Each structure stands twice: as C-alpha cells, then as structure tokens.
C-alpha cells in the first residue's frame, strides 16, 4: 500500500491517481475538502433559488417557473455528473475550472436575466420569450456545473485517503446537504433582504470561486503542473475582477434597468420584505402608477375606474355601516368606501406594512388615496388575510371588499379558494355582500368563472360584471410576459351574497363616479356572455387557477 505522502512512481502517466501530495496532514486535508463541499453546496442552492425568485418576479406564475428551473437543473446535474467522469484523472484541475466557470455564470445570472427582461421583453416577436429562454439556458448551465462537482470532489477526497465508497459518499453528502440548508436559509433571510438579488448573486459567485480556488491551488497544488496553476490562478482572478466590477456597477445598472421597465419617472423603489413596491409619477401633475412585484397594480389613467367598480356596487346595494377591506394597503379602495357617509367603521387587513407606510407618508400615494388612512373611521391591521379571517368575529361586517391580486398568481391562489370564501361568509351579516376582483374576463374567462364556481361552492350567489380599462399597460393576467393578443383589457368583478339569490348591482348618488347604472347593467350582460359552465371549485389542496 502506498503511504499518503508518497510521491508518484517514476515514469507514472499524467493520469495516475495515486495519493495526493498534501501540504497538511491527511485528516486536515479531508476536513478542508468537506468544508469546500459545504461552501459549494450553499452557493449552488443560492443560484437555484435566485433563478426561481427572479423568474417568478420577472415572468410570473411562480409554480411554473420553479418547476422549470428545478426540473432542468436536476436533469442537467445528472448529465454533468456523467460528463465529469472524463475529468476525474485530472480532478484537481477539472474542479478548479468548474468552480471558476460556475462562479462566473451563477454570479452574473441575475444581472443577465434582468437585462434581457428590461431591454428585450417588450420587443415582441422572437424576443418576447427572451427571459424564458435565458432562464432555461442558465438553469441548464448551472445544473451541468453543479453536477460535475460531486464526482470530482469524490475523487479528490479519495486521493487524500482511500476509504470504502459508502463511507466516502456519506461524508460527502452530509457536508453537501448541510451546506444546502445554510444556503437555502441565507437566501431569503440574509442575501435577498440585505443585499438584493443582484449583489447577493455576485457575492455568492465570489465566495464560490475563492473556495474552489483555495482548495485546488492551496491543498492540491502539487497535483498541478506549473502551467495549470498559473492558468487557474489567472482564471480565478479574472472571474473575481468581473464580479467585482459588476458589483460596483450594480446600482447604476439596476437604476437603468428599472427605468427601462417602468419609465424615467420612478420616484420610489423599495423591497419591503413582502414585495417590491415601485411608485412612478404622482407629483407635479403626473399620474401615479403603483407596481407591486413588477405588476401594475394601480394605473393613473384607470385606477379610479377600477376602485369605483370594485367598491360602489357593493356599498350601494344594501347596508354598509361596517366595511372590511381585505388587501387594499394602498388606501385607494378605502378612499372610495369613505365617500359613503353612512360608513361608520372600515377595517383594512393588509399583509405588507411597508405598503401601508407608503400609503400614509408618500406625497403622491397619500394624495391619490385622499389621506384615507388618516380618517378616524379607518383601522389598519397588518396580518395574513386568511389567518386573520380565521379569528375574526362572526357577522361583524355589512360589506367585505376583496381587493386582492389576480387569482392566477400563485401566492394569491389561497385567497380565491372555497375555504377562504367560507371564512368571508362567516364574518358577513345576514344581508351582507362580498365584492371580489376576479381577474380579466375576456382574456381569461376560465379563471374568472372558476372564481364564480368557487363562490357558489362556498354558499354564495354572485352577479358578474366587467369594466373596460383604457390604459394599454394593463396586465391581462398574472404573467407579466403575456401579451394581450388583441383581447379587450378589462377587469372582472363578482358581487356576491350568502344565500340562493344574487344581489343586483346598484349605484346610489355617492357611488356613481365614472360609472352609470345603465353602463353597469350593460357590463353585467357583457360578462354573462362569456360564462363557462361546469367548472369545479378551487380549494386549498386542489387549486384550479
């Protein structure tokens, strides 16, 4: 048996895989390899989560995007593991090269995705799918490189001290899985909120290339030829230089990309911990646009039409002294509710305290909501809407306004479920009404009528109506990259009440605004013409959107 520090036999071929010539004791060397496994696993999972997060934000439909990223990466990891078999005779040099490329690709992936989305997603044609294609390409490339790590690390750890395959695999995978845990926790709780997606990915790439380079050039340097050492050193320094330059330019890049997406009048862009909030315009006579996670939530030209249509039919049709608004942290729905003088109390339940703070303090947004949150009748609670409803008092409200994101967005699916509407029914008074924004009627009729079917399954009867939008930026669904394809841009609503009879939307003097009674009745008929029968209800365990 060859001793751990024995030199290669004279005349041994370059592919000889005898014991490594280490500058430290074998036990210490083995520990350092496992530390590198830990760090590389953490970095790999951060790359994976960063792709999922960016895809969900930029493209939409987080379940689909997460499935694409994860499935492509797992497949590519298998291919990468097979491909690494050709490198195992030169495991140290191969691992150093893999880590340098992985650090560069993974570290720059977020910036590249954002650039393609910002400057090509609106071009149409073959460019319309640019972000999706790049997402798949990065998932494939990162998966190939991550997959190549494990066979090479297994070869390196066996070069230090031979042991049975089962024991070596157990040690390697234990370090790998613990590293993945740390990376998975660091991304949402440290990197994303503190550094943001761009800088967080660049820092991860830096850690990755330093760990890989230190292992190869420090611990296994005697396994490398002089030329290989210099090549790997220069490659690592080049990658570090690129990542450092990108980090230095990240602020300017993000501002330029944000202007490309939202226009030049961006006033506020904050990550609240729940979502990204961007305010465009709203001062000096400019219309205010509110974007939440990249989606236009309130557009200056159509914001009033949307909120009047959501609020006034429900409040004009019966008693409305006690009103509950679910969502509505921007204060715009509360503004319309307060126009009805009979209102005595308005409870707003919003999950994002950062949005509520902006609604109170930002001059543009607070002017748009007419300082609704300063009214003593308005009481704001920061909580998860579904969880709050579970503890809410029964029969406490005359009207419930569900001012929630589109039902097709994965995070909102639970807020359009049969269970959710069952809880909403419990808090309504016997003659209470529930107003629901249910997405675009014309562009996505199955989604709209699934909401109707879900309401009926929860014991409601509902009347549909739609309002046409005029702003060409109005989103047709949860997917930001979806084009309207000529379909009318509209909002769909359902006015529901417990029991077998659906309420007929009415407008009193206070609730007309841009609406008319004749126009509202025509909107009811227009929505009915799109009806899709036989759709099943959506539930928490079986979402249908």
Automatic annotation (TrEMBL):
Family of this protein: Belongs to the spermidine/spermine synthase family.
Keywords: Cell membrane, Membrane, Polyamine biosynthesis, Spermidine biosynthesis, Transferase, Transmembrane, Transmembrane helix
Residues covered by the PABS domain: 228-486
UniProt-listed GO biological process terms: spermidine biosynthetic process
Gene3D superfamilies named among the record's database cross-references: Vaccinia Virus protein VP39
Entry binding sites for S-methyl-5'-thioadenosine: 275, 350, 384-385
Compartments in which it is found: Cell membrane
CDD domains: AdoMet_MTases (cd02440)
Positions of transmembrane segments: 31-59, 65-84, 96-122, 134-157, 169-192, 198-220, 232-251
E.C. no: 2.5.1.16
Gene that encodes it: speE
SUPFAM superfamilies associated with the record: MFS general substrate transporter (SSF103473), S-adenosyl-L-methionine-dependent methyltransferases (SSF53335)
Primary subcellular site in the record, as a coarse category: membrane
InterPro entries referenced in this protein's UniProt entry, alphabetically: MFS_trans_sf, PABS, PABS_CS, SAM-dependent_MTases_sf, Spermi_synthase
Catalytic activity: S-adenosyl 3-(methylsulfanyl)propylamine + putrescine = S-methyl-5'-thioadenosine + spermidine + H(+)
Presence of keyword Cell membrane: yes
Active site positions: 403
Any one of the GO CC terms: plasma membrane
Membrane topology, as annotated: Multi-pass membrane protein
Keyword Phosphoprotein found: no
Record-given protein name: Polyamine aminopropyltransferase
Involved pathway(s): Amine and polyamine biosynthesis; spermidine biosynthesis; spermidine from putrescine: step 1/1
């Amino acid at each position: 048996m060859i001793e751990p520090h024995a030199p290669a036999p004279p005349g041994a071929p370059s592919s000889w895989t005898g014991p490594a010539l280490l500058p430290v004791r074998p036990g210490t060397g083995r520990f350092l390899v496992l530390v590198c496994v830990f760090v590389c696993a953490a970095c790999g999972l951060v790359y994976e989560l960063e792709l999922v997060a960016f895809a969900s934000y930029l493209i939409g439909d987080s379940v689909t995007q997460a499935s694409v990223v994860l499935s492509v990466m797992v497949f590519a990891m298998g291919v990468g593991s097979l491909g690494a078999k050709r490198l195992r005779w030169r495991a140290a040099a191969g691992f150093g090269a893999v880590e340098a490329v992985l650090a560069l690709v993974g570290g720059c992936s977020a910036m590249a995705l954002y650039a393609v989305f910002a400057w090509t997603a609106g071009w149409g044609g073959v460019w319309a799918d640019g972000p999706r294609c790049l997402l798949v390409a990065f998932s494939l490339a990162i998966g190939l490189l991550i997959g190549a790590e494990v066979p090479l690390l297994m070869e390196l750890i066996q070069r230090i001290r031979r042991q049975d395959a089962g024991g070596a695999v157990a040690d390697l995978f234990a370090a790998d899985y613990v590293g993945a845990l740390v990376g998975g926790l660091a991304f949402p709780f440290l990197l994303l909120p503190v550094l943001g997606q761009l800088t967080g990915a660049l820092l991860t790439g830096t850690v990755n290339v330093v760990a890989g380079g230190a292992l190869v050039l420090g611990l296994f340097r005697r396994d490398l030829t002089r030329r290989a050492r210099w090549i790997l050193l220069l490659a690592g320094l080049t990658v570090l230089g690129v990542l450092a330059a990108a980090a230095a330019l990240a602020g300017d890049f993000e501002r330029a990309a944000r202007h490309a997406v939202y226009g030049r009048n961006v006033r506020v862009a904050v990550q609240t911990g729940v979502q990204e909030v961007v305010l465009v315009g709203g001062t000096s006579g400019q219309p205010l646009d509110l974007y939440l996670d990249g989606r236009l939530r309130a557009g200056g030209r159509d914001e009033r039409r949307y909120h009047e249509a959501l609020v006034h039919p429900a409040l004009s049709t019966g008693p409305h002294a006690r009103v509950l608004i679910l969502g509505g942290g921007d204060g715009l729905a509360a503004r319309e509710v307060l126009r009805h003088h009979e209102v005595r109390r308005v409870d707003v339940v919003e999950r994002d305290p950062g949005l509520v703070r902006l609604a109170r303090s930002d001059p543009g947004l607070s002017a748009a909501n007419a300082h609704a949150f300063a009214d003593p009748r308005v009481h704001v609670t920061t909580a998860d809407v579904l969880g709050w409803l579970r503890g809410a008092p029964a029969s406490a409200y005359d009207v419930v306004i569900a001012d929630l994101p589109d039902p097709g967005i994965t995070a909102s699916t639970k807020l359009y479920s049969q269970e959710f509407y069952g809880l909403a029914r419990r808090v309504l008074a016997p003659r209470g009404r529930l107003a629901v924004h249910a997405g675009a009627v014309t562009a996505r009729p199955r989604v709209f009528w699934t909401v109707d079917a879900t309401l009926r399954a929860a014991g409601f009867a509902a009347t549909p109506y739609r309002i046409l939008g005029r702003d060409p930026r109005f989103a047709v669904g949860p997917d930001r990259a979806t084009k309207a394809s000529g379909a009318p841009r509209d909002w769909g609503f359902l006015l529901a009440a417990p029991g077998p009879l659906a309420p007929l939307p009415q407008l009193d003097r206070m609730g007309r605004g841009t609406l008319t009674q004749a126009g509202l009745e025509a909107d009811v008929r227009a929505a009915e013409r799109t009806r899709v029968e036989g759709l099943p209800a959506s539930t928490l365990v079986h979402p249908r959107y």
